[in-house]
Design goal:
The complex is a heterodimer of chains A (308) and B (369).
Chain A lengths: L9 H29 L7 H19 L2 H23 L6 H20 L12 E3 L7 H6 L1 E3 H19 L1 H11 L1 H6 L4 H25 L13 H11 L4 H23 L6 H5 L1 H13 L18
Antiparallel strand pairs in A: 1-2
Chain B lengths: L1 H16 L2 H6 L1 H27 L4 H14 L1 H25 L8 H18 L5 H30 L3 H21 L33 H18 L1 H11 L1 H6 L4 H28 L10 H11 L4 H16 L1 H8 L5 H15 L15
Amino acid sequence: MADGTIGLWTVPLAVFGGAIRVSTPFLFVSLGECITERSGRINLGLEGTLVMGAMSAYGISYLTGSPWLGVLAAGLTGALLGALHAGICSLPRVNDVAVGIALMLFGTGLAFYLGKPLIEPTAPRLPAIDFGWWSDVAQVRAALRINVLFLIGVVLAPILAWAFRTTRWGLLIRTAGESSDAARAMGHSVLLIRLRATMVGGFLAGVGGSFLSLFYPGSWNEGLSSGQGITAVALVIFARWNPMLCLWASLAFGGAAALGPALQSVGVTSGYHLFNAAPYILTLAIMIITCSPKRTLTGAPAELSITR
Amino acid sequence: MTTDAADPAEAAAIAPAADAGFLQRHGTTIEYILIPGAALCGALALFGVFVALFGKNPLDLYFYMYYGAFGTWFSWQNTLTRAAPLILTALCTALPAQLGMVIIGGEGALLIGALAATGAALALPSAPPLAVQMAMVCAGMLGGGLWIMLAGGLRQFRGVNETISSLLLVYIALAILNHLVEGAMRDPASLNKPSTREIGAANMIGSIPGTDVHWGLVFGLIAAVASYILIYHTVFGFAARVAGGNVRAAKIVGLNVSKLILTVCFLAGAAAGLAGMVEVAAVQGRTNANLAAGYGFTGILVAFLARQNPLAIIPVAILLGGISASGGLLQRRLGLPDASVLVLQGIIFVFVLASDALYGRIGFLKGKA
């Protein structure tokens, strides 16, 4: 122990550290999607939002030198894409699932286009808080270097759960999601509620993207996101539209995604790609276990097209 | 440019001359051409504005797009070569759409089909080429078909949303491909780019005589026409459309919905798997990560632009094949990044979906309205 080598303990430690690091984008995208889906609409385009967020955060951070401005820019980009999604979906006879697929392609394409000049330069990264100062072991210190965004996400989850339960806004969003007729009868515009919910969802997904480019992996390239956005959308379904469950599910996912690199670091290289696919396999497995053809899922917003 | 611009121009030319009865009788058909055509033009116009913001001349853009896609015999061949897999992957979305399912996992079925086809070819080292090619077709279709059938089965028997599961299966398929290509199926001689061994020049399916366009285009055309006949001119297709319209009604009249879903999903995946086989046997000659070139995702756009009609998929696939064929020219002549094709595809997709709101609302097509 004294010389800083901890042998096979590296694996669980790396999985733990990875769970915290890798889970942050999952956490933000799933919380954002949770808000959108609670309002009765599904936004499959958050994969594109995530990539756009990552690109714009990196670009703004590089140009201004302030990573926090980058995070803000990522959020605003995400909110714009959310507004685009909600705007198109509010037209009659337009399918929100299909619009999401379109925006997924559009967002990634636009990010690759605008992000071409950003592959070379290095932008300032987000700072991390060193919770591992008490330890001499390098791996422990690495695992406990925790980003502020993760902490914000962790605080955000219970706040959202509370807001859905007790605040006026939470109630309005839930009403729009459970019965658009009821919301209309109360004199509220369902389209406006969903527009705002989708924009807030897009904002959070964009912030999740900024974490990818500004902290971990911490650079901008075209292979940055490989399906984290869509996995997070699936994650909301088995988190039963509950923000707290989104938090736990994101952590589990981060751990699963960190398994491949962790095993590689101790020399287990066979099956590297299969371990990398662990989050997708896990998502699919959990969906298979928890879904049922006989009933709609408990907790599912009644207006949601994807669960009907 | 010309092909798509022709649609609305043509319709506009008919409008003043023709009598109201003609417009009413063919209103729906005209709408199906006019509205996507207009959406396409709108998307091209917006893309022109977009590149103008980066200091490029939009007219140059349109010229090079036309030239790179349909301007010369060479570019036509390039376009048709790219259209072939697009027709097949579009069917992977369009066939389940008849049942009301949104499957977006054509890319995964393509990869699995390519792996299966390569495996079949490598397992038959001394068989005559025709037998190897038949085996590759069967293996590719079987692999892709089972892959999408998995998504269909999960939806029918476990209630798992098919859109999400089919997309997750894309990433899983890619992981399986990378795993096998870097492990069990790796050709030790492929150092920089891990690949399987080559299937052998004799086993390649070659080009249509007189052209550089490979036979995959013919596979695509046959598959599209066969799908059209299956959906619109057979009892099976009718049953599928009934089930797509109203599952309860389908069950009441005694249709076996599970069987319909599984069969349609198998056929859909088989089409995309065939695309994978074609890419291996006509273009790459082996399986490696190059195969994940996004044909599966562009195929989704083709299917939606064609309004899930298998026959309409053919011209739309050629059009989008042309757009991607012109990408290289745009890169060389205008200095646009290769992602500009993706941006244009995304804009087209958004416009086409937004134009769904227009159906049944165009005054002069409804007579007295």
